[in-house]
């Protein structure tokens, strides 16, 4: 069985094997941070892609709303809150298109929040747990 290759460097005429630094890519550039910091960000992204692929909205409509959200006061300059704005733009778009009303969205958000609070750490969140009082 072949062992994985390690990066090496020349030190005073001697080759010294060193483990590659996981924070550095092979080309010596810093590794980029993950695209999604949390699963919900990936899910929000996937929802927008899916709705667009189903022909329920055009990307320009979404881009316009996302731009409004990003330009709003209080946007973090480091992009930490980018997907919060993404989600808010998606919520606004789905409401504008009549896919869901604001009261329905608020009710679903409250149901998921209650379910999350009723779910022990490490278990999947299920709406049924909130309805049964966490049992």
Query: What is the number of E strands?
Result: 2
Provide mean pLDDT, rounded: 80
Strand content: 5-15%
**Count the helices. How many?**
5
Taking all Cα atoms into account, the compactness measure Rg is 23 Å
Lateral strand order in the biggest sheet: 1-2
Shape verdict: globular
Explained architecture:
The chain is mainly alpha-helical and 135 residues long. Among the domains are: 37-98, no CATH class; 101-119 and 126-135, no CATH class. 48% of the residues lie in helices and 6% in strands. The protein has a two-stranded antiparallel sheet. A hairpin with a 2-residue loop joins strand 1 (8-11) and strand 2 (14-17). Helix 2 (59-71) packs across helix 3 (82-96). The N and C termini lie far apart (50 Å).
Write the layout of secondary structure elements.
Elements: E1 8-11, E2 14-17, H1 39-53, H2 59-71, H3 82-96, H4 102-118, H5 127-131
Antiparallel strand pairs: 1-2
What would a concise description of this structure say?
This protein is mainly alpha-helical and 135 residues long. Helices cover 48% and strands 6% of the residues.
């Amino acid at each position: 069985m072949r062992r994985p290759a390690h990066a090496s460097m020349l030190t005073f005429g001697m080759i010294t094997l060193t483990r590659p630094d996981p924070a550095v890519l092979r080309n010596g550039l810093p590794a980029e941070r993950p695209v999604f910091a949390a699963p919900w960000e990936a899910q929000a992204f996937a929802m927008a892609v899916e709705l667009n692929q189903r022909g329920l909205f055009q990307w320009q409509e979404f881009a316009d709303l996302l731009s409004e959200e990003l330009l709003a006061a209080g946007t973090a300059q480091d992009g930490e809150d980018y997907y919060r704005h993404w989600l808010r733009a998606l919520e606004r778009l789905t409401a504008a298109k009549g896919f869901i009303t604001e009261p329905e969205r608020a009710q679903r958000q409250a149901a998921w929040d209650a379910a999350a609070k009723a779910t022990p750490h490490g278990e999947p969140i299920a709406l049924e747990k909130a309805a049964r009082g966490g049992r």
